[in-house]
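Hey,

Quick one before I head out. I ran the complex with magnesium ion overnight. Inputs first:
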Amino acid sequence: MLGYYLRLSLRSFRRAPGLTALMVSTIALGIAACIVTLTVYHGMSSNPIWWKNGELYAVTVNPLSPSQTRKAGDPAYGSSQLAYDDATYLSGSGIPKRETVLAFLFGAITSTPDQTRPLPVMIQATTGGFFRMFDVPFRYGGPWNAAADRGPEPVMVLSHRENAKLFGGTDSVGRTLLWSGHRFRIVGVLAPWHPLPRFYDLSAGDGGPFGRSADAFIPFQWGPTLRDWPAGHMSCSSQGSASSTYQGLLGSGCTWIGMWVELPTRAARRHFRAFLQAYAAAQRKAGIFHAVNTHLWTVSQWLSLHHIVTRRSGLLVNLAFALLTVCLINTLGILLAKFLRGAPLAGIRRALGASRRQVFAQHLVEAGVLSLAGAALGLALSAAGLAGVRLLYRGSAAAYGKFAHFDPIGIAWALALAVVATIVAGLYPAWRIGRRPPATYLKSQ
Amino acid sequence: MLEMHNISKIYRTDLIETHALREFSLQVAAGEFIAVSGPSGSGKTTFLNVAGLLETFDSGTYKLDGQDIRGLSDNARSRIRNEKIGFVFQSFNLIPDLDIFDNVDVPLRYRGMKAAERTARIANSLELVGLSSRMRHLPAQLSGGQQQRAAIARAIAGDPALILADEPTGNLDSLMARQIMDLLEKINSMGTTVVLVTHDPELARRAERNIHIIDGLVADTVPASGARRRERQGPAHAESATD
Ligand SMILES: Nc1ncnc2c1ncn2[C@@H]1O[C@H](COP(=O)(O)OP(=O)(O)O)[C@@H](O)[C@H]1O
Ligand SMILES: [Mg+2]
């Protein structure tokens, strides 16, 4: 019978090709709009560096005791940063393509020693790898090199905003600034760069994760070198609480350093995971760690671990589904009208002996074919749409013109919604026809 | 074949109740050809709809081919319609996007017949009504008379015991009407019971028995031989006149 119903459906479509095309393309448009919005949204707004998802990983080794872990209510809380010893060791593996460590420092900058009104700044102590890893755009100059990290050399990168404040936005590369009694040479000035949320360091600063990025960047080692107490989030286990001296802090096991690695290949990921695991196991054996609990987090995972994605994702996702709903309502209107107008034909079939179930099945097949055609076309349109978006963003997203991040659950929902709604719209008239005696529908002939 | 006893059918709308059939009693023997006439709105179509299980009734008893109809499930009623009854309507009721072959195919599909048997039956019935050469035409490509013959082919394809025809010649000119009547007589001669609703006294006269319905009641029933002398003999009971 299925073949028969399929043939009848095709007949019915052929009888009204324009209407059928309209219904299929409306369903398809709704699905495509929904999927493109979801994917782009998921890729972009919630993950400010979506084009490198799957390549960038935050590193945690979770050295704290289980009781502290439970208290924080989050499996990785308190360990979302590393202790100084761990960070130092883990940055030396040479496995990742790039890696960086980071912490916030506060301070005041002057351009001359006798300047009476120093500018308060938020400084990101990090490594030269930071800028390349996170595709940070430069207006003037560029990042410092590895030698400057090792030195550390007194080099500094200014944010676009800070450069505007201090130098009126002119090219300040080669000029110097004083911080903590040291004269730092400016090697680079950023173009405006405001990743929201500030995924790479959620730990501090004005406005928390949605605050602005640092005003200035200096090599990480300047913190220990100048014994400048970190200004970001820090957590310490109860036993080894932070000592009051800076040297004590470095040996304490308190965690305050963020670490990111760039692992573009599966092999590199496997390799680095093994390295992490071995390190944690050794620390555990030595009684320094309470557990072996290492993690590599993608940016998306990192953000949802810190409850950041879900909070902001509502509006656009709702909008995407609202769009789909509008398209579906349109289609359903057409479909309902079509089927209800076809009721006399169903009445004839009933008179000739079709049972309710057979009328149902025929409607189901017709609506099903429509919705599946719509879904298939919708997927094709989405692919085209996403290709278009990729093209659009190829320039700005550095060389990474691709969406690595789909939202399979959102897409499944969109498809299911479309198919189920269409089928319900097909079954409702069948149900109505089945409820009344067949004579009712023959009368109107 | 068909036994109705004190059937009543009331149509209820928000405003009014219409007693379309009241205490309606009628028996039709297997193989009989009866013509039903009566003024417009007297309940002829309602009678056919109830007889054909296209409509339910409110009280009374109805036995079709010995089977009590009351209380049957929708499935059972659908099956009876499919296997035992053939319908012919005034407005043909062909499915416009199916060609004649596929229209005749519809009841056979619902009966679940194998393709070979369906094809054979369709060919036979189209042959009988003289439309073998038109089976790939759409209804709209045929004349009214041809469409009605296609509808008759569809009605008889499943080899039903009973044909119910509701003013099948109402939309046709008299020549075509006579052809349809010839066909129905031919089908009746092959053993099928035929109940024909018609306004046309000339056609009614060709039936074995004439039933007159007025106001939802069988007003009188006249044997065909007596149809020509249609002087009123006072109300006759349907049962007493049936044999
Ligand atoms: N579905 C219906 N709803 C309400 N009233 C109806 C319905 N069908 C028929 N009737 C009424 O029942 C009566 C008999 O109708 P019908 O059987 O169609 O008459 P006929 O076929 O003899 O012209 C009429 O008064 C008609 O208005
Ligand atoms: Mg009528």
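Chain A touches chain B at residues 1, 4, 11-12, 14-15, 345, 348-358, 434, 437-439, 442, 445 (CB under 8 Å).

Talk tomorrow,
K.
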